[in-house]
Please model this.
Amino acid sequence: MAVFGTWLAALLVLCIYSFLYKDNPLYKFAEHVYVGVSAGYFVAAEYHNVVLPNLLTPLYRDFAHKFYLIIPGILGLMIFFAFSRKLNWLIRFPLSFVVGIGAGLTVMAFLSADVLAQVQATAMPLNSLNNVLFVGGVLTTLVYFFFSAQHKGLVGGTAQLGVWYLMIAFGAAFGYTVMARISLLIGQMQFLLGNWLHILK
Amino acid sequence: MKKTLPLTITFLAGFYMILAFFVPHKIIAASAQEMQSWEIIIVAFTLVLGIGNLIQVHADKIHRQKSGWYYSLVLLICLVSMMVIGLFWGISEGTVYYWLYDNVMAPLSAAMFSLLAFFIASAAYRAFRARNKEATLLLVAATIIMIGRIPLGNVIWHHLPWLGAKFPNALEGLTQWIMDIPNAAGQRGIKIGAALGAVSMALRMLLGIERSYLTTGGGN
Amino acid sequence: MTKLTQLDRRWIFLAMGLVVAAALLVDLKMPVTISQDVRRAYDLIDSLPAGTPVLFSWDYDPGSMPELHPLADAMLRHAMRKDLKVVMMGHWVTGIPLIERQIGEVIRKDFPGKAYGTDYVNLGYKSGQYVVVVSMAQNIYDAFPQDYYHNRTDTLPLMRKVRSLKDVAAIVSFSAGDPGLLMWIQFAWQRFRIPVTGGCTAVSAPEFSAYLQSNQLQGLMGGMRGAAEYEMLIGRPAMATTGMSAQSLGHFLIIAFIIIGNIAYFAIRKREEK
Model:
């Protein structure tokens, strides 16, 4: 069964790779298998990981103490009103609850982790060239993102410096993106040449 | 009822989370915790919503016999089989579901993503040009990172006449410096800007100014 | 020169595939040096006394496996050797079976003495992303009433010690994006001061520099290269290390493409200016 699985996987990988030559029925077939299997996977995974342990089992085992879980259960089922033309507005109730909780938690998290903590860490003594360059980089980048003032004169010059910092950051990002993409190909080659064809040491 | 009640729910639920952040009282913490547990359950249902749309679109394609309808049939057969197998026979190791994940879904997903290696090579060849000062800066930084972060880059550096012997760690040092100083500073600028944007967006939602999520289901 | 710019991209694809395959077949052994960010992550795990609970979060799916699977392998191995107690979970629904695969490859194969429920637990997945994190920090049993195998969480010996997220000494996230490392920093470290470390795909590595500098993140492995460094640190070179020669040649090929592309571009521009 394991050998059959490896062969099946390898053939499907080759179907996907056939796209590199040109779009063709084999690729389209593999692509649709992928989307279908993933969607089916998703439903069963959500059921076994969330709906069953967090909703159905507690209700079944201990209804007397957990009866209030009927509320999120009903709110959850209300999502399916999305498919009704007349009653689809009912979906707003579960969504508004989800959005509210998410937004409430996001406000505090972003303010404290990405604004306060990041500003605090930038407040460093300017006693070395690196520190000066770092603080200068953060400030000039922020000036660039400040669109309420026209980027002319001193503001324009500072913003231009910010652009250079951003370009270096984007350059680093590009370099790392190349690294990531090649790693993914290496992984596939290790599978094809190693697990499937057994020609890797 | 259709608009005010959902907006009120958003406002109350959101500000209760903020209240729980500042007031660590037992009752508030416990009730906030319960609301979070509910959210975990409701989100699971919302995630499955997309699957319903997928089924609708492809069933329609088959029904109308649109071009390539047989691919949609393949998709639906795979969807239903995987779902039924998972729902009724379980998902952990040793099940058919796990086997299909391991030998069909995972390799397909990995292969799809690995196509990007080929496309980035083509993009590097066709689009990555030193057209101006900014683009040159980007290109130089990217090249230093690409060479500095791989073992072969350092092996070659160490074999360079004079430079390699005199400054053996210069390439690695420069790579790390780019990451720690100009890159980290630029990233921090982006982070602070993006976070302020995210916070203002979240506050707009809580206060009912941003209502686009209410358009799901009828619009307003 | 115009011909050069109009080269059929399939030749580029072929060159890329051949270079990576050839490099893997030849496998030149090259020394991997350890960067400070990886050392920092290693030191955090290494400094924990035996018996300490830690949380490992598999926040990726098969699409990013070549980068993060070797890393998770190396770190899980390190944790097992140090006799740490590992609570496992994941935020990416499409990656949950990868936890089981890694349990098989690392724990059952090389640490058969470790017992489920006492030495490690697989909690599986929950929808809700950061809501799950905040909820776990109050009471883990609420978010995870059962483990992945439908055992009641509060009946597992390890989980009786780990009642909330605050009971783990560190959080290790293997992150392919959002939800992942960033979310753990924003919600677990920032709000509850639980040290966070881990690895990410190389694509997202640069953005974490800002958090490393501010000490909100305790070390980081960026992509397959980061995993290769960790493999070196635990003295067990594996998949990531063997990938390094292919990684190296792949980078040089891309740089060659950039150079050729630019030469053609400038030559054409010069001709047009004339």
